[in-house]
Amino acid sequence: METGKLLTDRVADEIVKNIIGKDLKAGDKLPNEFELASMLGVGRSTVREAIKTLVSRRVVEIRRGAGTFVSACSGVSEDPLGLQFLEDPIRVATDLLELRFVVEPRLATLAAARCTPEQLEELMQLCDACEKNMLAGNDFSQENTAFHAAIARASGNVVVPNLAVILCGSPSMLTATPSKQIREELARTHREIVTAIAARDGMAAYDAMLLHLAQCRRSIAEQALQ
Amino acid sequence: METGKLLTDRVADEIVKNIIGKDLKAGDKLPNEFELASMLGVGRSTVREAIKTLVSRRVVEIRRGAGTFVSACSGVSEDPLGLQFLEDPIRVATDLLELRFVVEPRLATLAAARCTPEQLEELMQLCDACEKNMLAGNDFSQENTAFHAAIARASGNVVVPNLAVILCGSPSMLTATPSKQIREELARTHREIVTAIAARDGMAAYDAMLLHLAQCRRSIAEQALQ
Fold first, then answer.
1. What is the rounded CA–CA span in Å between residue A110 and residue B12?
2. Residue A86 touches chain B, beta carbons under 8 Å
3. How does DSSP assign B145-179, residue by residue?
4. What is the interface pTM, i.e. ipTM, of the complex?
5. Threshold 0.80, pTM exceeds
6. How many CB atoms lie under 10 A from the CB of residue A181?
7. pLDDT tens digits for range B64-80
8. Does A1 contact B at CB distance below 8 Å?
9. Taking CB atoms and an 8 Å limit, are A103 and B99 in contact across chains?
10. Mean pLDDT score, B29-39
């Protein structure tokens, strides 16, 4: 084990290595406390502390009475960029969007080049689900985040999907429903993005995403005025 | 307090709110265990557990004998994107770089428009320190990460700096020293980036960063062949 760290942290690192080494996936069960203690040659209370650390890092989750399981969050922390420590919510929303302008059009282009038929099918379904809520004036944040995360996965880049969840999960302070005009534009540009990806037209996908983000910016401006 | 979470997590959230509410900065001291327990109306053992959670989320750090302090990591965990759960280290390095190609040239352009005189001074010093190690064939990873993080801060975007630390911290598996030719090119393109930012020339900063990243890609290719 690596030295210079607290024993609990070192044991947590060993458990992570074990998860990776045994190729355990989200939902797979870990050995119990007793087995882990004997495997790693430490006491059960140390194992318990290490598991708590891994729960807070969202690597594992405890299901009461059932055991400890690999978390579906794959170790992506709840607020990986520490955004809750930034002060002005409108500023955070604006700057997140500035970053999305940098990243997402290129991701749409990559998705047009690399997305699989299954990923395209998923994108179309998410686009439908999102559009339905957008046009009905319902909350669409969940479907919207899922749609943008699916484009990030379709980019084929293994790092980006974990990042996209952060970028596109709309900050919780901006939850007002946008005006009908903006909702219609958001739905239309979503559709254009999917059409361009389906046509394998990287440049059209880039442009449609740019247009979509410009609509998002208008939506934030609308809410900042309220 | 929010319900549906474990008491420890709720107390941890309250401590975070307290840090934000009192505008405590990195290095500032938190109230002691006893004071926190009485402030939050919970037992000291719960406070102790909550503090442990916040240590593992890198929100606070404990200095033995001195107390608990706000961490300089501002809640950015060690591996916030869960990259250690991705399997192929060369693939992770390649895809991180693909993302840097998307993000960093634009950050350099923003830095040219927005950086303050103090930030420029810092950039020049980091460029010097990094160049010295690059040309001497020493490890330059720390100065290099600091240089790229300083450009991200100079972009004026509040979200980006925490992201840059993830993007530019070279994955630990790629630690071999690049060849002399590549090290010289990396140093030269670093210098060109700073010169362009100093001249407030956003397009030249964009191009210099692109060239620099192309050199980084050659450096990774070199190591992948070894």
1. 40
2. yes
3. HHHHHHHHHHT--SSHHHHHHHHHS--TT--SPPP
4. 0.72
5. no
6. 11
7. 888 898 887 666 666 66
8. no
9. yes
10. 90
